[in-house]
Amino acid sequence: MAQTQNQKDLAHARTKTSFDVSNMTRYLYAGPENVEQRRYIIDLIAREPIFNKDDWAWLNHTDAVKRGIAMSARLAEIKMEHELNDLDFATMCEIIDDTLPILLHNGAFIPVINSQGTDEQIEKWIPLAEKFQIIGCYAQTELGHGSNLSQLETTATFIPDTDEWEINSTSFTAAKWWIGGLGALCTHAVVQARLSINGKDYGAHVFVVPIRSLEDHKPFPGIEVGDIGPKAYGGFNKMENGFARFHKYRIPRDNMLMRFSKVSRDGVYIKPPHAKLSYGSMVLLRSVLIRQMGQYFSRATTVATRYLTVRRQFNNPTQRNDSDLNPDLETQVINYPMVQNRLFPMIAQSYALFAAGQVMMEMYIGLMTGLSSGDIAALAEVHATSSALKSYCTTIGAAGTEECRKLMGGHGYSYFTGLSHLFASIVPSNTYEGDNYVLTQQMARYLLKEIKIAKVEPEKVTPYSKYLLQALDKNAFGRTHCSVTRPEDWLNPKVQLAAFEYRSARLAFELHDAVEQGGQDPAHLKTWSDHNIECYRVSHAHAQYVMVRWFIQSIEEAQNSEEEERRLQSPGVKVLESLSHLHALHTMQTNLADFCEDGYLSPSQCQSLRAQVKALVASLADEVVGLVDAFDHPDFLLNSALGAYDGNAYQRLWDKAQSEPLNRKEVCDGYEEYIRPLLKKHGELKL
Amino acid sequence: MAQTQNQKDLAHARTKTSFDVSNMTRYLYAGPENVEQRRYIIDLIAREPIFNKDDWAWLNHTDAVKRGIAMSARLAEIKMEHELNDLDFATMCEIIDDTLPILLHNGAFIPVINSQGTDEQIEKWIPLAEKFQIIGCYAQTELGHGSNLSQLETTATFIPDTDEWEINSTSFTAAKWWIGGLGALCTHAVVQARLSINGKDYGAHVFVVPIRSLEDHKPFPGIEVGDIGPKAYGGFNKMENGFARFHKYRIPRDNMLMRFSKVSRDGVYIKPPHAKLSYGSMVLLRSVLIRQMGQYFSRATTVATRYLTVRRQFNNPTQRNDSDLNPDLETQVINYPMVQNRLFPMIAQSYALFAAGQVMMEMYIGLMTGLSSGDIAALAEVHATSSALKSYCTTIGAAGTEECRKLMGGHGYSYFTGLSHLFASIVPSNTYEGDNYVLTQQMARYLLKEIKIAKVEPEKVTPYSKYLLQALDKNAFGRTHCSVTRPEDWLNPKVQLAAFEYRSARLAFELHDAVEQGGQDPAHLKTWSDHNIECYRVSHAHAQYVMVRWFIQSIEEAQNSEEEERRLQSPGVKVLESLSHLHALHTMQTNLADFCEDGYLSPSQCQSLRAQVKALVASLADEVVGLVDAFDHPDFLLNSALGAYDGNAYQRLWDKAQSEPLNRKEVCDGYEEYIRPLLKKHGELKL
Question: Active site: which residues (chains A, B) (predicted)?
Answer without folding.
Answer: 433 (proton acceptor)
